[in-house]
């Protein structure tokens, strides 16, 4: 799921006085949306046309609850998403759209592998953009009480796009969570960062690769991407490395990591703040994450997805296949949920009992490993679960 928590995300919870945030009768909820849209300045006719025929989509809710792929460990997840075909297609697309990528690198300082990786993972280079009605998906998720503060503002952004002639409430389709186009952007992000890359006077994220790529680059820049800086680098760790020095919570200058014996598998260590990340603990692959790596979390909050996208971007630019190492066996989805429940009972914020090893669960695991005298590498094992 792409970044959706914007500054306007909480507006719906306070605007319009007693606006219903979620739940209840669906028709009454839509009526409340209509009233709020008009209070925001949209004329009644536009609002009427936008919501005409809107329906609740149960398939959207099923998709929202079904995200088990993110329970996979990094090595397996990466092998599923990164194929020879995607690598070859990426090289072909880089050549085909060389002028656009040159412009992105010149204007934004974003290396072409970064956008290519997102393009590949989000829609297979535009081939699979999703067939959910975008308006219905957004209204359905805003009505659902799991994350209404995220989706409700997107409805009003879609109305604004509709008023400009850039959104068809009955025909615009995309992903189940309301993202549109080749690199899957939400309506608020399209309003802010949509870019006419091909010069036809329109922003067509579904059909124009230059529009989609430049819009994605603008969004990354807006999220804080630091121009012409690296984002990720695979490294080998020295003997006797202190595992407690790993994790995004620990940052050192690249020269300090070099001084203690970290060695890059490709290129040179940059003189920038960086963190050592071990997606599968001390026995698995090791990476050095630079400031730009953290920007990925503004696009997608899954640690596994973020790391895989960042690594694939490097592969597209010539980095070697990562050294998978020999990590300790991880936990199954149900075991991870059991671990999360145990951590939650001890007062840790694990971000929800979902069986996914996200950033919050990793932080809790690190702290508990330290308390129990285990290697502090943020990789939960059966031994940790048993001790709890």
TrEMBL record:
Coiled coil feature spans: none
Q: Which keywords fit this entry according to its UniProt record?
A: Lyase, Signal
Alphabetical list of Pfam families matching this protein? PG_binding_1, SLT_2
- Give, as one word, the top-level EC class: lyase
Ranges annotated as spanning the membrane: none
User: Biological process GO annotation list?
Assistant: peptidoglycan catabolic process
User: Is Manganese set as a keyword in this record?
Assistant: no
- PROSITE patterns given for it? PROKAR_LIPOPROTEIN
- Stretches assigned to the Transglycosylase SLT domain: 26-313
Peptidoglycan binding-like domain location: 332-388
| GO MF entries | peptidoglycan lytic transglycosylase activity
Database matches in NCBIfam families: MltB_2
Q: What is this protein called?
A: Membrane-bound lytic murein transglycosylase B
Give the species this sequence originates from.
Roseovarius tolerans
């Amino acid at each position: 799921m792409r970044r959706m928590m914007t500054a306007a995300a909480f507006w719906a919870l306070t605007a319009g006085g007693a606006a219903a945030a979620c739940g209840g009768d669906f028709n009454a909820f839509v009526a409340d949306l209509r009233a709020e849209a008009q209070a925001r300045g949209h004329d009644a006719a536009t609002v009427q046309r936008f919501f005409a025929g809107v329906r609740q989509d149960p398939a959207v809710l099923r998709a929202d609850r079904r995200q088990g792929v993110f329970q996979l460990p990094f090595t397996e997840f990466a092998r599923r998403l990164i194929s020879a075909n995607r690598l070859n297609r990426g090289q072909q697309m880089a050549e085909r759209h060389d002028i656009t990528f040159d412009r992105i690198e010149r204007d934004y300082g974003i290396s072409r592998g970064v956008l290519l990786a997102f393009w590949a993972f989000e829609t297979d280079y535009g081939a699979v953009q999703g067939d959910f009605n975008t308006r219905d998906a957004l209204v359905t998720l805003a009505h659902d009480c799991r994350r209404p503060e995220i989706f409700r503002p997107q409805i009003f952004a879609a109305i604004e796009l509709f008023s400009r002639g850039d959104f068809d409430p009955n025909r615009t389709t995309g992903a189940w969570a309301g993202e549109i186009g080749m690199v899957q952007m939400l309506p608020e992000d399209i309003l802010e960062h949509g870019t006419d890359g091909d010069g036809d006077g329109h922003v067509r994220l579904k059909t124009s690769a230059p529009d989609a790529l430049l819009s994605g680059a603008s969004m990354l820049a807006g999220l804080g991407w630091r121009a012409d800086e690296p984002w990720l680098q695979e490294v080998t760790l020295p003997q006797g490395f202190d595992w407690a020095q790993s994790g995004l919570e620990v940052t050192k200058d690249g020269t300090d990591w070099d001084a203690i014996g970290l060695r890059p598998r490709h290129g040179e260590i940059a003189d920038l703040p960086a963190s050592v990340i071990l997606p599968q603990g001390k026995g698995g692959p090791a990476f050095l994450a630079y400031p730009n790596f953290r920007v990925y979390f503004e696009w997608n909050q899954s640690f596994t997805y973020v790391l895989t996208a960042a690594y694939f971007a490097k592969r597209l630019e010539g980095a070697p296949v990562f050294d998978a190492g020999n990590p300790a066996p991880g936990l199954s989805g149900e075991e991870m949920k059991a671990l999360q429940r145990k951590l939650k009972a001890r007062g840790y914020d694990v971000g929800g009992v979902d069986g996914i090893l996200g950033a919050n669960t990793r932080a809790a695991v690190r702290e508990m490993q330290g308390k129990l005298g285990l290697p502090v590498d943020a990789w939960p094992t059966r031994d940790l679960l048993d001790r709890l």
